[in-house]
Amino acid sequence: MSISDGGGYVDPNSLTPKEVKAYKNDFATSAKLFKEALEEYSKTTEIHKKKQLQKTMSEAMNIMNQIVKVALRKSGQAKEKKLENDYNNFIAKETPQGMRGLRSDIDDVQKSI
What we know:
The protein has four helices and no strands. It is mainly α and about 110 residues long.
C-alpha cells in the first residue's frame, strides 16, 4: 500500500525495511521543504509570497500526514496531530514560540517514523 493509492492505516510492522526507508526519506524531504517555507514565511511581509509559502507548507503537511498514517503506530500519530494543530495555530497567530514549536514537532514526528 502506498500513499499515492489513498491507503489508510497500515500496521507499520508489515512494512518491509525498504518501504520504511522510502517513507523516512519522503518524510525528511517534506519536512525540509516545510521548514524552509516556514523560515521564509516568518521573514516576508509580502502578502502574496506569504500565501504561496502557506500553500507550500500545507502541501508538505499533507504529505507528512499521509506518511504518518502509513508508517506510524496509532500511538505515534498523536505527535502528528499535535504538529497539525500547532501549524494551524501558527497560521492563525504567527509567533516566534509557534515557529519553534513547529520545528520541534516536525523533529519529534520524524524521529517516530
